[in-house]
Amino acid sequence: MVRSGDGHVVDEEKAVPLLRKAYDLGINYFDTAYFYCGGLSEVALGKAINGIRDRVYVSSKFPYWYKDEKAEYRKILEEQLKRLDTDYIDFYHFHGLNASGYTDAALKNGYIDEANKAKSERLIRHISFSFHDKPEAMKFLVDTGNFETLLCQYNFLDRSNEESISYARQKGIGVVVMGPVAGGGSPDVPEAAKKAGIEFRNTSELALRFVLSNPYVDCAISGMSDMRMLEENVLTASRPDSALSGSEAAALRDLLNEYRRLAELYCTGCDYCKPCPQGVNIPFIFSQMNNYRIYGLKDYARGEYARIGAENGIEGEKADKCIECGICETRCPQKIEIMKQLKECAGALG
Ligand code: SF4
Ligand code: SF4
Predict the structure, then answer these.
(1) Which of 150, 209, 219, 327 could form a disulfide with 176 if both were Cys (CB 3.0 to 4.6 A apart)?
(2) 346 Cβ partners below 8 Å, 6+ apart?
(3) In angstroms, what is the span from residue 271 Cα to ligand 2's centroid?
């Protein structure tokens, strides 16, 4: 067991063999970041890829918001190379980049110039960004022409990035998806899949096959904490029908949309209720409440809710900041009782 200066713990005796086993089973893309596990994640990955470095892709991330000195880019990159015990990082992401972060930090602090310099010196092989902003912001970042790959959330319950993913891919950007397996506790998802005539063993398998059926997705990364999860995911990805067929994926999409439409809280995410004077991010909160209530994804929804207002998380404020001014309810075309619903959200997700 190794402990970082800030209290994070990594059990290397479990992590390193798990990573190595992943390689043995055919996985060749490994993702980490400067801040994961207080830096210990990169150290463990470095140990796992010892001897096989030229046969795997290493992805890591630069915390562009952490400092605002141009020299920090190279300093942090060199620290990461040391931790990873390697001479280069294949995919080096601006961690959680959004539109304002691009303009106000990545460009302004000269980090984009530094990234190109590091690439010309072969210290990094591809300039990338990971992403949690609105889909339009993804298109903006793609159109800057400064990036070669991106990493974003996408799964059958959160398809908000679907259109911008296809946009990016058609502009020649490699698309890597995180969170492909959006929990497994939902009663409706298996029901929808059965109705659509899809044969599957469990919801995780179904979720992964849904993501792999998107022709614009190049790679899916999923956090795995034990051998069982690893073997299950490898088994799924190795099947001849690892991706759902186009008609299966479309049928599943339609049925899940229908469930959502029938839900008590039918928020379309139109954003007309914004801006809230208190900054409450109403559509995002309602989307998580639907994940919680309709799909039974309680931990997932709570985790996403916790990211509201967090550093490098989701913009805006949580439900408890509502002062019941009522403005939003006059704007909502779905006539949702927003104030009442927000109270329930605060109780369930907070
Ligand atoms: S009622 Fe609450 S959520 Fe709606 S606009 Fe007012 S403060 Fe914001
Ligand atoms: S206006 Fe209504 S439907 Fe639209 S995002 Fe806001 S709460 Fe949802």
Answers:
(1) 219
(2) 318, 319, 320
(3) 5
Residue 332 region, left (φ>0) first, then alpha (ψ -120 to 50), else beta? beta
What residues make up the domain containing 240? Answer: 3-245
pTM over the 0.85 mark: no
Nearest CA to ligand 2 atom 8: 267
C-alpha of residue 336 to centroid of ligand 2, in Å: 7
Q: Which ligand is nearest to the CA of 320?
A: 1
d(CA 186, CA 303): 16
pLDDT tens column, 321-345: 999 999 999 998 888 899 999 999 9
- Considering the domain architecture, whether residues 293 and 240 belong to the same structural domain is answered as no
In this structure, the residue with its CA closest to atom 3 of ligand 1 is 322
CATH code of the domain containing 47:
3.20.20.100
- 232, 289: one domain: no
Beta bridge partners of 220: 177
Question: Which pLDDT value is given to residue 342?
Answer: 96
CA distance 210 to 241: 11
Residue type, 100: S
Cα 85 to chain centroid distance, Å, stands at 26
Pocket of ligand 2 (CB under 6 A): 267-273, 282-283, 286, 331-332, 334, 336, 338
What distance in angstroms lies between residue 37's CA and the mean position of ligand 1's atoms?
A: 37
Q: State whether 195 and 340 are in the same domain.
A: no
Burial 3-14 (b: 16+ CB within 10 A, else e): eeeeeeebebee
- Ligand lying closest to the C-alpha of residue 327: 1
Quick one: which ligand is closest to 328's CA?
A: 1
